[in-house]
Amino acid sequence: MKSEPSRTKNKELVQIFETMADALEFKGENPFKVNAYRKAARVLGEIDLDIAAVKEEEELMRIPGIGSGIAKKIIEYLTTGRIKKYEEAIKGIPVSLLELLKIQNLGPKTLALAHKKLKVKSIDDLIRVIENGQLARLPQMGEKKVENIRKGIEIFLSTQQRMSIYEATEISEEVIEYLKRKTKVKRISAAGSLRRMKETIGDIDILATGRDGEKIIEKFATMPGVKQVLAQGSTKGSVILENGRQVDLRLVPPESYGAALQYFTGSKAHNIRLRDIAKAKGMKLNEYGLFKGKKRIAGRTELEIYQALGLEYVPPELREDRGEVELAQRHQPFDLITLEDIKGDLHVHTNYSDGEASIEAMARQAMEMGYEYILITDHSKSAKYAGGIDEERLLEQIEEIDNLNRKLRKFRILKGIEVDILNDGSLDLDDEVLKRLDLVIGAIHSGFKRNVTGRMLDAMDNPHLHIIAHPTGRLISRREGYDVDIGKIIERAAEKNVALELNSYYDRLDLNDINLMRAKEAGVKIAIGTDAHNREGMGMIRFGVGTARRGWLTKTDVLNCLPLRSLLEWRR
Ligand code: DGT
Ligand code: CA
Ligand code: CA
Fold first, then answer.
1. What residues pair up with 174 in beta bridges, in sequence order?
2. Which SMART domains does the UniProt record give (predicted)?
């Protein structure tokens, strides 16, 4: 599991650097410094290298994103078990306070003030000073600000309890892999919200068949990484892992596997609809099968259950009772987009801005994934915190891409940019340079409260812009998103033939399922990109495609299902 002996040093260092970034931000330190630590944390979390095996500073500095300052601190940690600068950074800040910095709308300055004047040290303290009105009475605070903080707390509390789809996927794959290796399970699959590809997951449900259930459940309950066993029998096991996450394993007989998979995949709302349909046909549906009297007429596979109910098979991602049952009754095939339909990644960073890998490395990764093309989209100059590039540097990048394309066969690196939409709605780079690119993505990265809708609409007036990035700006675990009228954006995007992005990064998934349905309805094309900052990041595409499926998208709705030539023809 996650706590295998290898790479524990990486994990410890990720924690340390993240906390350092938070602490320095709280103390009002220079954002570049803060960012360097955040980046180091991300890099260490993602590289394959086990840091514990490193001896030399030089070795570390070869890792993109690790400079000499960070390298020195890592060596210090490996040799002495501590980092002096870390101790300095967190000095005087209680740990519970650092946690609070993850709350949306609660900036480091406000928190520092609440800490000093009202002795706020924990989330409970914070809720108390909101309830009794003390926070609103602090200088420069007021009811509106406090209301926003209250909303932030709600999001914080709700996402603290649920895990990201990324975390849930990693855990479930490791558990399934482990059980396949160590026990005699036959069929095994994730069920529940994870199989439906919901953006956050409460607990992980796994379903399996196999002889000697007791033994299988015992292996499950004693696997590495288990902190507490909630239940252990011959058909069900339930455990809490070291990281606090819950995993349930159920063993069912093969003749019920389809019925159980259907039942435990949910959603509850979808299941209720199916049960009613069964009832109306004089049948009974439960997790053991579909029955006519005492006779089981289906249960081995999900497909035979849907068929016996007179329905088209409904893909798990659609099972939310949002109209899928009615369509299945009319035998409309769903034809959803699949991972194999994706022909390229339309949002990728390189070491020209805040990415960690070269253009060529990202392109090679894309080729390994079987893509036809990749769109390079580094940040533009106003995004200083992300090392955004100016016109001159972009021209250099264009040249490098041209050279690489001459070298690569049957693959095309497309020239692009993730250009900032400025406060006045104009784009951050000259049209003269933008027009030399294959595709231009516009993005809001600052001024989240400043007329975001108007600025996006203005940006769409620029004929060089093709795609709007992460249109609502939400971060699932930490912020609600811009104050944007997404209905207006969708309407204008349809008019102007501008595509909207589905950003596949697990904490964004923006547009979300509901907005994707609206965009599709309006005839807007969707560009699925990963926003990858390294090679591994391109793997996030699976969450993008999962979300696209939840939004009912087919391959004809998605820009990067087009082969290269049609994609280039699509440009206005
Ligand atoms: P989560 O874990 O909160 O992200 O959401 P789910 O959907 O995984 O929910 P969970 O783990 O409570 O239960 C897994 C599935 O089991 C759920 O999607 C549908 C099914 N299920 C649970 N309770 C009921 C119920 O009372 N009636 C029906 N029909 N199905 C249920
Ligand atoms: Ca669940
Ligand atoms: Ca469950």
1. none
2. HhH1, POLIIIAc, POLXc
CATH architecture of 339-571: Alpha-Beta Barrel (3.20)
Q: Which architecture, in CATH terms, is 163-247?
A: 2-Layer Sandwich (3.30)
Ordered alpha helix ranges (H), 5-141: 8-26, 31-46, 57-61, 68-80, 84-90, 95-100, 108-118, 123-131
Closest ligand relative to 237 C-alpha:
3
pLDDT in tens, 325-348: 999 999 989 999 999 999 999 999
Structure tokens at 297: 């007429």
Testing ligand 1's pocket by substitution, the residue of 158, 230, 264 carrying the most ligand atoms inside 8 A of its CB is 264
Integer angstrom CA distances of residue 234 from 218, 220, 248, 257, 424:
9, 11, 13, 16, 64
Banded model confidence at residue 103, pLDDT cuts 50, 70, 90: confident
Q: Where in the chain are all domains bearing CATH 3.20.20.140?
A: 339-571
CA of 197 to the centre of ligand 1 (A): 14
Using CB atoms within 10 Å of the CB of residue 500, give its burial: 0 to 12 exposed, 13 to 18 middle, 19+ buried.
buried
Provide the pLDDT confidence category of residue 52 given band limits of 50, 70 and 90: confident
Are the CB atoms for 239 and 226 separated by under 8 Å? yes
Provide residues with CB under 6 Å of ligand 1: 192-193, 198, 201-203, 205, 263-264, 266-268, 271-272
Q: Which CATH architecture has domain 256-329?
A: 2-Layer Sandwich (3.30)
List, as ranges, residues with CB under 5 A of the ion ligand 2.
192, 202-203, 205
